[in-house]
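Figure S7 source data.
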Amino acid sequence: MGLPMAKHLLINNHEVYVYNRTSTKAMDLVKEFPSSCHVISSSDEDIQRVLADQSIGIIISMLFDYQNIVDVVFQNLDKLGGSPLSGKVFIQMSTISVEQSARLDELTGRCGGEFIEAPVLGTNTVAIAGKLQVLLGCSKELFERVESLNVLQNFGSLKHVGEKSKAIKMKLSLNFLVASLTGVLANSISLVQSNDLDVNMYADIVRDSALYFKYFDMKLPRLLNHDYSDMNFSVNGIVKDLDCIEKMAEDSKVNTNLISTIKNLYEQAGNRDEQIKGQEDFASVFEIMKKE
Ligand SMILES: NC(=O)c1ccc[n+]([C@@H]2O[C@H](COP(=O)([O-])OP(=O)(O)OC[C@H]3O[C@@H](n4cnc5c(N)ncnc54)[C@H](OP(=O)(O)O)[C@@H]3O)[C@@H](O)[C@H]2O)c1
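C-alpha cells for the predicted NAP complex:
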C-alpha cells in the first residue's frame, strides 16, 4: 500500500523521503522522480537522520503491524533522545489494535509530536487509483490543520471519524465485514459446488436479488479460479486484523463467537500450505471449506 501512496505524493509535487525494509522496491520511484524522491537506507543512522530533520513536518507510516512501527520508527526516535518529533505530526495508517494505537499516541507525545490515527479502507488497486477512504481519529482542530496541508487527500477522501481511537475502531468494524463476507461467500459456494448445483445459476440468482452486493463479483472470480496469487490482502494480514477485532469486541462487551470462528477459519487457511505460509490472498479461505 505504501508504494502507490508515496507515488501519489510525488505526482502532486511533494518532496518524499521513502523508507522500505527492502529498499530496492522504492527504486522505480527514484527513477521516475529523481529530484523529489529520496530513499532512506535500512541503516539506523540514516533513519534517525531523517526522523530528526527539522525541515520534515509530517511522518507517515504504512507498515504491516504495530511491532514494525515500533522497530522502525520508535526505537530510532528513542536513540535520538530529547523531543525529536517536536513540531511534527506522526500519521499512522496501518491496521492495528485500539490499545496499540493508544500506545503509539503516548510514544509520539513523549517524543514531542502530535499523533493522528488514519487507517484506510480500500485495496492496493484502490490505493493505485488514489481512491482510498482515509479515516481520521484526532481532534477537530488537528484534522482541520492536516486537511489544510493537502497531503492525505492525495490518497483519496478524508473522513474525520472523531477523537482518537474512533478511527481505528471504525476501521476494525469495517474489516470484520470484509473478513466475514469473504468467508461466508466461500462457504456458500462450497455448498453449491459440493451438491452439484450450477454455480452460474447461483450467481445469477444472487445478482437478481436483494442479496447482491458489489463485493460479490469482486471475489467470485478469484474463488472459482482458485486464484490467490495477485494479492489484495494476505491471509496473515486478515488474521492480524481479526486478532485486533476480537480484542475490541471483548473490551466493548460484544459477542465474540462469530469473530472467533471466522478468525479460526483464516488461521486454518494460513496453515494449509507450509510453502506459502499465509502469503496469498485471503480469499484462499475457500480452500479449507471442503472437508477431506
Ligand atoms: N492491502 C490492503 O488491501 C490493505 C487495505 C487496508 C489497510 N491495509 C493495512 O495497511 C498496512 C500495510 O498493508 P500492506 O498490504 O501494504 O502490507 P504488506 O504488503 O505486507 O507491506 C507491509 C510493509 O511493511 C514492511 N515490513 C513488514 N515486516 C517488516 C519488518 N519486520 N520490519 C520492517 N518493515 C517490515 C514491508 O516491507 P518489505 O517490502 O521489505 O516486505 C512493507 O513495506 C497493514 O497494516 C494492513 O493491514 C492493507
